[in-house]
Amino acid sequence: MKKIFLLSLLFFSLLFLYHGNAKCQWVRTNQSVDSTVECLTASNSSLFAGTSNGIYRSTNIGDDWTRLNTGLIQKNVIAIVRMGEYLFAASIDNSGCSTIIRSIDDGTTWSQVSNNFPSPYVCTGVLSLLVKDTDLFVGAACGGVFLSTNRGDDWIAIDSGIQGKQKFQATALAETPTSLFVKTDVGDCSFGAANAIFRSTNNGTVWSKASDSISIDDLSGAAFALLGTNLFVGMYRTVYQWSDSNFRWSKVGTNLSGPIQSLLVSGQKIFAACEYPQSDRIFLSNDSAKTWISVSAGLENVSKYSNPFQLAVNDRYLFVGIIDNGVWRRPLSDFGISEVKDSTAFTNEIRISPNPTTGILTIHNAPQNLTSVAIVNVLGEKVFELANPHTSDFMIDLSKLPPGMYYARFLVGSSVDVKKIIKE
Which pTM does this prediction carry? Predict the structure, then answer.
């Protein structure tokens, strides 16, 4: 009897462990996103996927997706970033020419803003986007680095000091509190260019080479991540950390399975997504990239040729986009990360009445930490702004505005809530 009891205890213990581990794995979100996922962005309460078939948005962690292609000229979307109340995306056509598009209504509609790149860069392929405060940076193929200080309306080339200039591919951009970084790669147009990292301490006006301390064998591809004030870069199968004290990169992690496609920070942990051919593709570091463990459970049956392209995170889930296999998610609690609270997020549901309106709008249930509310027209032009209302209920007079559609943008820190308004 004792032997039977012990065997039964062992059986149920193994069964418990199996089911416990079965829950700790990646699961695929709604399969309506079935094209190649080029980029992911978690913003406010929304998750955006840029794909070879346009832009998709989910407001329920991927259980449902809405396709958002109104205003898109090119459907192959390779980057999406947020700047306050604005979203920006980069798309590319079959000839290699890109378009930068902008949305003021959380991705519902888009308008083109990049048809005024300076000559001779009118047709350039955008590979990376970076937002720093109110500046938007673009890294391009065969075109260099560009800066817009007015939300994409105008652009200037900022590549002074970069080896190869018009011939390199700016595949990745990053910032620290003191510097900008760009990773350049050799490509089809890159004769005379170099695989290198360049650094600027004056917002891109002048760049200097900053990769001499990185092994030449590692200088292919790049993915940046910022943990506090510490910048990390994934290069091939190795992770390096930048030092502002001696202006060098130090090798800190080497045991990853393949070329690193994406690095992401959540709390004090760093995640990495790697290319095939290994089955271990998603990794976690608990010690500032020094050692890595595989957290790929659930992805074993995904084709080894379906690479993970980009990681994204919200307050409760880690997401990964995979070529031809959509978007996958896994709870942060699996990695020992408690729910990440956004101190700037909206905790109230703001209401507007009446809507449509003939002039006077009443705002209900505004959060106490609301810093401003702006009214913009369909062109993105600000027609009204109220700073720090200091009350949960207040009125706005739109009677002098012409009839039409407008958007109310409620700003708390970097979080934005957008409401559509109809003025009759």
Answer: 0.75
